[in-house]
Amino acid sequence: MVSSTTDLTCVACGQECEHELVVVGRLLHSTRCTACGHVVRHEQRDLMSAYLRDLEHRLLTKPQRLVRRAVSEPLTFLMGLPGAVLRQPGKIVEELKTVLRPR
After folding, report:
1. Which helix (H) or strand (E) holds 20?
2. Residue 101 pLDDT greater than 90, yes or no
3. What is the rounded CA–CA span in Å between residue 51 and residue 57?
4. How far apart are CA 40 and CA 32, in angstroms?
5. What is the pLDDT of residues 33-51, one digit of tens each?
6. CA distance readout (Å), 70 to 23, 77, 102
7. Under DSSP, is residue 18 helix (H, G, I), strand (E, B) or coil?
8. CA angle 90-84-55, nearest 5°?
9. What is the predicted pLDDT for the residue at 13?
10. Rounded Cα gap, residues 51 and 55, in angstroms
11. What is the enclosing helix (H) or strand (E) of 9?
């Protein structure tokens, strides 16, 4: 899960202001207006379906992405590989927690 901010026009208060974006995998999970607190989320069933398709795509393309990194930056790739392997399960668990979190 990644959080970032961007300026958007809020559908609730009409102000153009900073919104917090929550991204899970490569999908926009929700936005929250920092002015009024209004939150926009995908329906959980739709988000879960899209997340599972995205996760499947990420898993299927991972070998190609690893080879590309290994070829372009072999030393950086080798040095970072153990940490990346250890972080992946926790990253997926956090993504699933966010997707499955009740409204």
Report:
1. strand 16-24
2. no
3. 10
4. 7
5. 999 999 999 888 888 999 9
6. 27, 5, 39
7. strand
8. 60
9. 96
10. 6
11. strand 2-9
Tokens 């992405």 sit at which residue?
Answer: 65
Rounded distance between C-alpha atoms, residue 1 and residue 96, angstroms: 9
Instruction: Give the whole-angstrom CA distance, residue 20 versus residue 33.
Output: 7
Please spell the DSSP secondary structure of 22-90, one letter per residue: EEETTEEEEEEETTT--EEE--HHHHHHHHHHHHHHHHHHHHHHHHHHHHH-HHHHHHHHHHHHHHHHH
Handedness of CA 88, 89, 90, 94 (dihedral sign): positive
Paired tokens of 11: 């559908």
